[in-house]
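Blackboard transcription, Thursday session:
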Amino acid sequence: AREGRGAAAPGSSAAGTGSAMDAPSAAGLGGADPQLQRFIEVETQKQRFQQLVHQMTELCWEKCMDKPGPKLDSRAETCFVNCVERFIDTSQFILNRLEQTQKSKSAFSESLSD
Amino acid sequence: VTLGMESGFGSDFGSGGGAGGKLDPGLIMEQVKVQIAVANAQELLQRMTDKCFRKCIGKPGGALDNSEQKCIAMCMDRYMDSWNTVSRAYNSRLQRERANM
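(Written on the board underneath:)
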C-alpha cells in the first residue's frame, strides 16, 4: 500500500521522515472507538506536518537569513521556498536511492559497506 | 481534580457522552488538541529563542542593551514570517504531490 512513496510521497509526509511510523492504523491507540481512531490519525498527520515545518524553518533560517531586518525581503522569501522544495527533493532522493540499492544488492549491510 | 474538570468541561462542550460522561471522547479530543497546540507553541518559542540569541547577542554583557533588544524583536517577527513561508511552501508541495498521484 505504500509503494512509490519515493516518487510522490502522498499525504502524511512528502519528506519521508518518520516513515517507519506511517502507522497504517491507529486501532491500537483508539481502541474500539472509531471516532477516536480517526481523530488520532488526523492529529498525527497534522503533527508530522508541524514538526517538519519546525525542522525546515530552522534549517532554512541558517541558509537564507543574514541579518534580521524590518521585513522578510523577496530574496530571502524565495530562498525559503527553494529551501523547502530542495529539502523534500533531498528526502525523496535518499528514499529512492535506498530502495534501489536494496533491490540491486541482496543484503542491506552490503550496500552500507560500499 | 480530574473528575471535577471533566464534569465542568463536559457540560461546557456539550458533548453529551456516555451516562456519566467520564471518559467522554469529545472531551479527550479537545484536551489533546489543546496539549498539541501548547507543545507546538513551546517548540516554536524554543527554536526562535535559539536562533535570535545567535543572531543578536554577540559577547554577552551585563544586560541586554537597546540594539540587542531591537534586534531580538525584529528577529522574532522575521522568524514568524519564515515559519509561515515554510508552512505555505510545504503545504503547496504536498498538494502538488497529491495532485500528481
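Lecturer's comment: The CA atoms of residues 69 and 76 of chain A lie 11 Å apart.
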